[in-house]
Design brief:
The chain has 227 residues and is mainly alpha-helical. It has 11 helices and 2 strands; from the N terminus they run ββααααααααααα. It has a two-stranded antiparallel sheet. A hairpin with a 6-residue loop joins β1 and β2. α7 packs parallel to α9.
């Protein structure tokens, strides 16, 4: 490799421009050993996927598969492949398959959001929350109960959770006679909309704005909530 002589000292100094066919050297930091560009690439930390986003993707994937397959036939690998994560990451976040699907079969957190409105506005809130869940969040808060017959004994768990965490919880907020009946009628009205919008995918329904659907449909839900 050629050298350049500095006029002040006459000593050889590293060239500022590489000779043809050579690669420029990495400038070393004083007091530290030189690091190659390849080494820098190897040691640079890989970007980390947000843990909460990964957990949400895993739960969405498990819900999707549970709506199409029996619980016993769903593998962690299938969930991982759909979620775009590794199976060991599912174990890290949820412990095991049973713990993951216990989360999927619970309606507790969904009911928190579904019923989070004053009683006089609850019908509108429930309809909007269901439609926005399907269109914006990719998760319906209650529709997976429709697939309980696919699940055998796990379906019994789904039904029990749905009754206590959704229907009976709603009934507890209602005053007047037949609160349990009215709660179940309100929820069944909501489920009908979820099936038509998310499963049957009604063309007229899906071509209509959420605001318009809420205006037309919410009174039918609210009517069951009134004494």
């Amino acid at each position: 490799m050629s050298t350049v002589t500095t006029p002040q000292s006459g000593r050889a100094a590293s060239p500022t421009v590489p000779v043809s066919g050579e690669q420029p050297a990495t400038v070393p930091v004083p007091g530290e050993p030189p690091v190659s560009a390849a080494s820098e690439r190897e040691t640079a930390p890989a970007p980390r996927r947000d843990a909460e986003a990964s957990k949400a993707a895993i739960l969405r994937a498990a819900r999707y598969l549970l709506a199409r397959h029996a619980h016993a036939d769903i593998t962690l690998k299938a969930v991982a492949d759909r979620a775009g994560v590794s199976a060991p990451l599912i174990l890290k976040y949820f412990g095991n398959k049973d713990a993951l699907f216990a989360r999927v079969m619970s309606f507790e957190s969904d009911a928190d959001a579904l019923l989070d409105a004053p009683l006089e506005e609850l019908g509108r809130h429930m309809v909007r929350h269901l439609l926005e869940g399907q269109t914006q969040r990719g998760a319906d808060p209650v529709l997976r109960i429709v697939f309980a017959p696919l699940q055998g004994e796990q379906g019994d768990i789904l039904r029990a959770n749905f009754r206590t965490q959704v229907s009976e919880r709603l009934a507890g907020r209602l005053s007047g006679p037949d609160a349990g009946l009215r709660a179940e009628l309100a929820v069944s009205t909501l489920l009908g909309l979820g099936v038509m919008y998310g499963i049957a995918r009604g063309t007229h329904l899906r071509a209509t704005t959420i605001d318009t659907i809420v205006d037309r449909y919410a009174p039918a839900v609210q009517a069951q909530l009134a004494p």
